[in-house]
Design a protein that fits this description.
This protein has 7 helices and 14 strands. It is of the alpha+beta class. The chain folds into 3 domains: 84 residues, SH3 type barrels (Roll), CATH 2.30.30; 51 residues, no CATH class; 79 residues, PRC-barrel domain (SH3 type barrels, Roll). Strands 1, 9, 10, 11, 12, 13 and 14 form a 7-stranded mixed β-sheet that branches. Strands 2, 3, 4, 5, 6, 7 and 8 form a 7-stranded mixed β-sheet that branches. β2 and β3 form a beta hairpin.
């Protein structure tokens, strides 16, 4: 069964000790093999933010009827998992460095904007910062946040073709499809593409390059709200 990752955000994480541990905040993907590397869990109490990284192998089952992800760990065990800041996707490393260097607040789509003046684009400062946020190891070089990638522009072989909306993962947490909204065309729609079509990702410009023409994308299977078979 396929499920969209964005739909799992906010679901309860339920432990083997029959306690609610926290909620799903995000997913970190491996953009080389296109698998879910970590579930980002917010286990903070009383509204505090405390994010830990839960590997998919710790997930026992997904319960859609109760919007729960059941893990084979107790709350105490989850609290001792690595924190989300220990394995930051490259674009978030970039964003944090950018914010620190230029005094602008960090902004991510869907989290709300600051009341301060609009910051320069990431592209304008790419050359100055890129060398300072080199990945610490090979894993970090391929980590991508689903939150980060949502809204990235899709660039076909012959031009822009919409933006990325979501990912479909199977029961083994392998990414089978990503959805693209082609809304800037007349009769825009949401279509399904295989991650194998991704040639490269420019995190500093928020671009996903695919090896398709725009017409190929327009003719791709349409997503109508039901998981693909």
């Amino acid at each position: 069964m396929l499920r969209t990752l964005r739909n799992l955000e906010g679901w309860t994480i339920y432990g083997s000790d029959r306690q609610d541990i926290g909620t799903v905040d995000d997913f970190y993907l491996d953009d080389e093999h296109w698998t879910v590397r970590y579930l980002v869990a917010n286990i903070g109490r009383w509204g505090a933010l405390q994010e830990t990284l839960v590997p998919p192998r710790a997930i026992d089952r997904v319960n859609p009827h109760e919007a729960r992800i059941v893990v084979g760990l107790t709350r105490g065990e989850v609290e001792h998992l690595p924190g989300a800041d220990t394995r930051r996707p490259i674009a978030r490393r970039y964003d944090r460095e950018y914010s620190s260097q230029f005094g602008y607040p960090t902004f991510w789509p869907g989290t709300g904007r600051s009341d301060t003046a609009a910051p320069p684009t990431l592209a304008q400062q790419a050359a100055a910062i890129a060398a300072r946020v080199a990945p610490a190891d090979e894993e970090e070089a391929h980590l991508r946040s689903v939150h980060e990638l949502t809204g990235y522009r899709i660039h076909a072989l012959d031009g822009d073709s919409g933006h990325l909306e979501d990912f479909f993962a199977d029961e083994t947490w392998v990414i089978r499809y990503f959805t693209v909204h082609t809304g800037h065309w007349p009769g825009g729609r949401t279509v399904l593409l295989s991650p194998e079509r991704i040639r490269s990702i420019e995190w500093e410009h928020q671009l996903v390059h695919v090896d398709l023409l725009r017409d190929d994308i327009k003719q791709s299977p349409r997503y109508r709200g039901l998981p693909p078979s």
